[in-house]
Design brief:
The structure is a single chain. The chain is built from 13 helices and 8 strands. It is an alpha/beta fold. The protein is elongated and about 85 Å long.
Length: 323
């Protein structure tokens, strides 16, 4: 008997007398119900999965947007103004310690001059170069409760970000990336409880920072590192929001007391605004950046504009921070 001699079960049912059809079990309805249930369960699972991935990102984006809005639309109350030659500085709260980090004690040749420039301008400061091994030992000894999170970071740059916060909170002093050089002494950064650069399009950078030991704002930063260690699909976004500048800015925007934080104006920072007499110079760094940093989605996140604010307006009026 060939396959052509067989009729579909539903077709066979249709050929039976009506009374017999009524006595047959309704298999098609049960199949439809089971199929629908599978669809609902599948959609529910996908929805939960989407929320698992999306909610941390949405939380970060919302918080970061608030931070950008604060910087763009409200002029910060505490500023470090360019120093006048010979002017008397105020009381110092930050100790004379210069911190830098690298994976080993072998510094790449391209950064040695920048490293030396900062040391030469601060001959009476204590200098500390923290290697990856030093950082791990420091966390194990002083902050063992953070060790699981520290080891769980998928990217080394996240540990490099986190360790600088812990070092400054514990010892105080000034931290500066190895791909940044010093043009002038950094004593002006010792006058406030915490100081960091103001960067475009708005917010704080973590490539150079100063803090007094036990600073309250840094305490908040440390307390929220564990909660913000989330998977965010794209490496660039995950690093920036979990430990990097966007994380630092988010914690500032959510902080109740913003007046203990001083910011270095863009002209003094010298990375994006070249119009002033900068205290720093910047070499090519960000070696952890990969192709994902060029994705349009990342560009949109990092270059948010509010209202009529534009890049040219911001850079033309770095001190006003209003459009």
């Amino acid at each position: 008997m060939s396959s052509k001699d067989f009729l579909d079960l539903e077709q066979q049912d249709e050929l039976l007398p009506p009374k017999v059809q009524q006595q047959l079990p309704s298999t098609s309805n049960g199949q439809h119900q089971r199929l629908a249930l599978r669809w609902y369960l599948g959609l529910g699972f996908l929805s939960l999965l989407a929320l698992w991935f999306a909610l941390p990102g949405l939380t970060c984006l919302g918080s970061a947007a608030y931070g950008v809005a604060y910087w763009m639309l409200k002029q910060p109350k505490v500023w470090t103004a360019p120093l006048v030659p010979g002017a008397q500085l105020g009381n110092f709260t930050v100790p004379k310690i210069l911190h830098q980090t690298w994976k080993s004690r072998v510094i790449p040749d391209k950064w040695k001059a920048a490293q030396q420039s900062c040391q030469s301008l601060h001959p009476d400061w204590e200098y500390k170069l923290w290697t990856d091994a030093d950082g791990l030992e420091f966390i194990e000894k002083h902050y063992p409760e953070f060790l699981p999170t520290y080891l769980a970071y998928p990217y080394n740059i996240q540990r490099a970000d986190a360790i600088r916060y812990f070092i400054l909170y514990h010892y105080g002093g000034v931290y500066i990336d190895l791909d940044m050089g010093c043009r002038k002494p950094l004593d002006f950064m010792r006058q406030y409880n915490f100081t960091a650069p103001l960067t475009y399009p708005g917010g704080l950078s973590n490539d150079v920072m100063a803090a007094m030991p036990g600073d309250a704002y840094l305490g908040r930063v440390l307390a929220h590192l564990k909660a913000w260690n989330r998977f965010m699909v794209i490496k660039y976004i995950q690093v920036m929001f979990s430990t990097g500048p966007m994380f630092l800015t988010t914690q500032y925007s959510l902080s109740g007391n913003k007046f203990d934080v001083a910011v270095i104006p863009p002209a003094m920072y010298g990375k994006y605004d070249k119009s002033g007499d900068a205290y720093f110079y910047h070499l090519h760094g960000s070696s952890w950046h990969e192709h994902d940093a060029k994705l349009p989605a990342v560009f949109c996140i990092m270059c948010m504009k509010l209202g009529e604010c534009t890049a040219s307006t911001f850079l033309a009026q770095p001190a006003a921070l209003s459009c």
